[in-house]
Amino acid sequence: MTRRPTDIWSEEAGPDDGPLVAIVHGSMDRSAGMLKLSRRLDHRFRVLRYDRRGYGRSHPHPGPFEMHGQVDDLVGLLAGRRCVLVGHSYGGNVALATAARHPELVAAVAVYESPLSWMPWWPSTTARTLADADEVGPGETAERFMRRLIGDRRWDELPERTREVRRGEGEALIGELGDLRARAPWVADDLPLPVAVGVGERGAPHHRDGMERLAGLLPDADLTWLEGAGHAAPVTHADAFVDRLVMPLFARAGAPWADA
User: Fold this and answer.
1) Which overall architecture, per CATH, does domain 10-118+187-253 show?
2) Cα 8 from Cα 50, distance rounded (Å)
3) What are the φ and ψ backbone dihedral angles of 182, each rounded to 5 degrees?
4) Interior CA angle at 26 toward 42 and 103, to 5°?
5) d(CA 150, CA 154)
């Protein structure tokens, strides 16, 4: 079967009747980066992972890559099922935007080091990426972003085919970051549900500051620090991520997540 360019790849694991948990990855990532989290949850919960539009097995995609389309993709995958959402980095904003626009589908949200790029105090990290796009185009912009994210040595060690694929995701990166810089994806007053806000002890200063502000901004948010963790905590500190950030949120979400 030929995949259409607008198809969103997804995979579910865990018991068919388990409470649903959906995991949303960040910019220049894909569902594979959330696999450790899924495996720590799918013995008790039904876990949905997916490649957001323009990334991984949902690439190529014609876009657009703004938040409205991101929310539509996730809502389509939920197919009317109520869930708890877990979002990493940009994926946290997708989760919050979905909860704000479709409260009937979302019982609670966990976010980890999500960018608040539209806020006037947010540093120029996003603006730097967008400036790269104007200077060198999407492929080189994606490479520069990845080099900042994982370091030059790790990037240079990747197979050329992998680097080519990641460069091809530059259009999605530029589109979603530009949209996030230009407009707020959600309004705090539209999010009265339980939210777990996570940040790493080794996170960048703007992430540490941003998550403290976010926890104070939302009506029902708890802030959790993960000792020794940086931005890649879903991979490097998956056990702590689940035990300290996600599991307490299930208790706050109530049945059926609290009872699983």
Assistant:
1) 3-Layer(aba) Sandwich (3.40)
2) 7
3) -85, -30
4) 70
5) 6
**Segment 131-183, tens digit of pLDDT:** 777 788 999 999 999 999 899 999 999 999 999 999 999 999 999 999 999 99
Question: What is the 3-class SS of 104-172, one letter each residue?
Answer: HHEEEEEEECCCCCCCCCCCCHHHHHHHHHHHHCHHHHHHHHHHHHHCHHHHHHCCHHHHHHHHCCHHH
- Residue 255's CB is within 10 A of a number of other CB atoms, namely 10
- The per-residue pLDDT for range 6-65, each reduced to its tens digit, is 689 999 999 999 999 999 999 999 999 999 999 999 999 999 999 999 999 999 999 999
Report the amino acid identity of residue 107.
A
20-24 β-sheet, strand order: 10-13, 46-50, 20-24, 83-88, 106-112, 195-200, 221-226
Contacts of 243 (CB under 8 A, 6+ apart): none
Residue 1 has pLDDT above 50, yes or no: no
Tell me which of 126 and 193 has the higher pLDDT.
Answer: 193
- Write the CB contacts of 24 (distance below 8 Å, at least 6 apart in sequence): 50, 52, 74, 85, 86, 87, 88, 91, 92, 94, 95
Amino acid type, 120:
P
Residue 125 reports pLDDT greater than 80: no
C-alpha 187/C-alpha 197 separation (Å) is 16
- Residue 36 one-letter amino acid: K
The domains of the chain are located at 10-118+187-253
* Spatial contact of 139 and 229, defined as CB atoms under 8 Å apart: no
Packing angle, helices 160-167 and 138-150, rounded to 10? 120
